[in-house]
């Protein structure tokens, strides 16, 4: 038995998950009781208006005395619901354990044992993602942008199920962002992180294209420089376009030929108008890029992310 206080968290996000609660709790309880000196189970009820008491009334009293239910007053996204549970967790280690693994409660012990190898965050890694074909390209573009335009180390096959040490959780809770993408926040926090492979694939969430696309834009705008980079390239392309248009207009005016060698007849005022429009187009793109820099700086200041996170202090 480990002399450790463990907090176990899960979010009840649908009526089907609520119906699974008795089997879920009766599965994880023997592992917690046998291997940890103290433990608590925190369920976040993300089903406003639905009480979980009826689903849990036949549970043994031994389980109920370690159980805490957080009833949210209004439905929120799953990441925010997880934060509600993490705020309440008091354990030396906190584990988010999803319903996908309720028939494999031994994974709790596997995750904890991995932390004894000096890891602060250990997550379950899927071999594949099960999603509808029309969404595969969206996931591919999303994760390629995250890798290229940020310093975040994000595993696109990572399950939400993971164990977090107390010191890593304290640092994570300092990041009080309203627009949360938990995989990115885990990466910002840092600490020694590893994974345990599992055969359980990541199941596609029951959300439409609009919700997924909106969540992707939130994550990209919050954690990458992609949009600023796009505006920079628009400015560079507009500047090159300006140069080409000016050269073409001057060549038509003075030589009677365009850049492709086609004969053209110069119209009075045409050269001046084309050059003037191209200059203003380039200036507009430059202003947009400059404004994006200012907005990004303001955005990052408002978030108040910690400037640094100290993992440990050593004395020699």
UniProtKB/TrEMBL annotation:
InterPro entries: Glyco_trans_2-like (IPR001173), Glycosyltransferase_2 (IPR050256), Nucleotide-diphossugar_trans (IPR029044). The keyword Nucleus does not apply. One of its GO terms (cellular component) is plasma membrane. Keywords: Membrane, Transmembrane, Transmembrane helix. Residues 31-171 form the Glycosyltransferase 2-like domain. The chain crosses the membrane at residues 230-250, 270-296. It holds the Pfam family Glycos_transf_2. This is Glycosyltransferase 2-like domain-containing protein. It comes from Flavilitoribacter nigricans (strain ATCC 23147 / DSM 23189 / NBRC 102662 / NCIMB 1420 / SS-2) (Lewinella nigricans).
């Amino acid at each position: 038995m480990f002399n450790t206080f463990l907090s176990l968290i899960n979010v009840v996000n649908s009526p089907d998950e609520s119906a699974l609660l008795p089997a879920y709790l009766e599965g994880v309880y023997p592992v917690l009781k046998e291997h940890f000196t103290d433990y608590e189970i925190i369920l976040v009820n993300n089903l406003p208006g639905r009480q979980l008491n009826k689903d849990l009334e036949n549970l043994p009293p031994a389980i109920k005395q370690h159980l805490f239910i957080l009833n949210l007053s209004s439905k929120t996204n799953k990441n925010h619901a997880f934060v509600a549970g993490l705020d309440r967790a008091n354990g030396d280690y906190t584990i988010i354990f999803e319903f996908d693994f309720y028939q494999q409660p031994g994974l709790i012990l596997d995750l904890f044992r991995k932390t004894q190898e000096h890891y602060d965050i250990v997550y379950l890694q899927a071999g594949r993602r099960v999603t509808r074909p029309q969404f595969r390209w969206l996931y591919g573009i999303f994760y390629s942008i995250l890798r290229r335009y940020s310093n975040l180390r994000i595993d696109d096959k990572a399950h939400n199920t993971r164990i977090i040490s107390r010191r890593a959780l304290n640092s994570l809770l300092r990041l009080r962002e309203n627009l949360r993408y938990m995989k990115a926040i885990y990466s910002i926090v840092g600490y020694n992180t590893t994974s345990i492979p599992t055969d359980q694939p990541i199941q596609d969430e029951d959300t439409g294209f609009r919700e997924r696309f909106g969540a992707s834009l939130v994550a990209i705008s919050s954690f990458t420089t992609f949009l600023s980079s796009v505006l920079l390239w628009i400015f560079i392309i507009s500047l090159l376009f300006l140069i080409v248009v000016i050269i073409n207009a001057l060549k038509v005016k003075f030589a009677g030929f365009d850049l492709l060698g086609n004969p053209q007849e110069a119209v009075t005022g045409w050269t001046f108008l084309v050059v003037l429009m191209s200059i203003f187009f380039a200036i507009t793109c430059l202003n947009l890029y400059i404004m994006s820099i200012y907005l990004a700086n303001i955005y990052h200041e408002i978030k108040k992310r910690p400037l640094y996170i100290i993992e440990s202090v050593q004395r020699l």
